[in-house]
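Consortium newsletter contribution from the modelling node. Members have asked for a concrete example of what our holo predictions look like. Here is one, prepared for the zinc ion complex that several groups have been discussing at recent meetings.
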Amino acid sequence: MAGPFLLFSFLSLLVSFTGLSPVYALPKLFPTPINHDLYHSGTGLIEKINSLVHRHPEKLTVETLKSGTEGYNADVTVVTYGQSGKQSDDRSKIRILIGFGQHSRELITSELALRIVLILTEEQFLPGIDQGSLNSTLENLVIKVVPLENLNGRKLVEAGELCERRNGRRVDLNRNWGIDWGRKETNSTWFTCQPETQIMREVATSFSPHIWVNVHSGTVALFMPYDHKKSTPDGLPSQRTRALIEELNKVHCHGRCKIGSGGASVGYLAHGTATDYMYDVVRVPMSFTFEIFAGDKTLEEDCFKMYNPVDQTTFERVLNQWCATLLALFKLGPREFDMHSTNNR
Ligand SMILES: [Zn+2]
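And here is the predicted structure:
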């Protein structure tokens, strides 16, 4: 019995000498901290994107859009990919807009943005992809990527608020759009006033994309409108969108993604979402929300682990799977459009 007693005495002495309790002397295991070996900081990721653009001026351009209201300011970086540089606004091409990092705790989404831009510049390659076929797909596209819509919110997460999903002044940017607005989740005084939403709305209306994707994490899904109803829209574009997500689910999600309207599939109705606004107001014919990762939900406050892969193998698997899904969307989506009547619904 002397062993445990001596050990206890030793620990007590250690505590009294160091002034630390044994609990606090241990590394912090809960909540799971951000794995900085895998994940960039928000500003680090934007810097990396900017240097990529600098190395590939023939394919990429970048702009940082600024907006502010009531003393609250936000910057949103927008990268544009187009193979012929100056013709990147060529109206004959199919236009695709993809938003990442709208919810600040979903760090993995911005890592996917960086990875897809790395693939577009051929600084990285996706296993199993035929580069020649990808290049001929990309010739006909202009792609705008918003790698981190909610940089201010991301800074709160990096400062330790791992469960925060809202922006720098605590507004949920995916309940902030002028569509079916005014329900309980929406802060009425800030209706579409958030600078981040204003910037995204401006980008969308001036670019007028054929395809919009809002990338999130927390579940694994390929959603289409509506989020605020338990139904999908009527008409041919909606049927084509559904056919496309069924194909993506089969090939790239092994049939395991939830598909259909967000409102019917997610278990609650969401009001004022970006994807519903893009479909109904900006009139983007193919509007999606992709949910790319479902983490461990056993401990409610363990948000980094709930929304993001924590080990390298899962991290790489998720990025590869969803890069392949996005590249398939780039290939299959434009086939649904008659180039002579694009954007008509
Ligand atoms: Zn989200």
